[in-house]
Amino acid sequence: QMTQTTPPTHTSYFDSSGAESSASGNATASLVLHGHVALISMLDAERHNAMTPAHVRAMVAAIDSSKLKKARAVVITSGVKNFCAGADVVQLLKGRILEPGPKDPDADTPFRLFRRLVEDTRPVILAINGLALGGGLEMALSSDLVFAAPEARFAMPELGLGLLPRMALVRLCEVVGRRKALELILTRRRFTAEHA
């Protein structure tokens, strides 16, 4: 929970197309400004904030909107039970790679969101509650700072499907060191906020 010391100065919502509105409706993400701090909440309870193209579009639109509104820092959290369930398994099973291709490097893939977080020059802070699996863990690795609730759990279940989490493989070594990264990758075990 973020303690509100500054009352919200702006609230907007983003749907699956990335369109911004002032009504929550079918919002996938929300943006609330507290002074110069942008609080972006993921809101897709039905899919546990899975990294669908719609989710990526909404999140990228919220991040871009926070820049236009002159936010100096970004806090990303979940407004539902879990932080992020990772990639949308239904799309994976349909053969969609969820990686940008040479013809469309700005495709609405999780990598687009991770790249946006890494390249943001402002402090990007994640407040993680519940599960942060696959893409949720990769979002954490793409941010500058992570605060995790005691019940938070992290894992890379895509390794069990024979998929390599590109961002996690690169950033995990930088964050926890090579040996710990190898242990987490080879054992595929879940770990707690305390162990993170």
Description:
31% of the residues lie in helices and 22% in strands. The chain is α/β, with parallel strands linked by helices. The model has no long low-confidence stretch (mean pLDDT 86). The chain has 6 helices and 10 strands.
The N- to C-terminal Cα distance equals 19 Å
Rounded average pLDDT: 86
**How many separate helices?**
6
Overall 3D shape: globular
pLDDT under 50 segments (min length 5)?
none
Structural class: alpha/beta
**Order of strands side by side in the largest beta sheet?**
2-1-3-4-5-6-8
Which descriptors would you attach to this protein?
196 residues; alpha/beta; three-stranded mixed sheet; 6 helices; 10 strands; globular
Sum this structure up briefly.
The protein is an alpha/beta fold and 196 residues long. It is built from 6 helices and 10 strands; from the N terminus they run ββββαβααββαββααβ.
Chain-wise SSE layout:
Layout: E1 8-14, E2 20-21, E3 29-34, E4 37-42, H1 53-68, E5 73-78, H2 89-93, H3 110-119, E6 124-128, E7 131-133, H4 135-142, E8 145-148, E9 153-155, H5 166-176, H6 178-187, E10 191-192
Parallel strand pairs: 4-5, 5-6, 6-8, 7-9
Antiparallel strand pairs: 1-2, 1-3, 3-4, 9-10
Helix pairs in contact: 1-3, 3-4, 4-5, 5-6
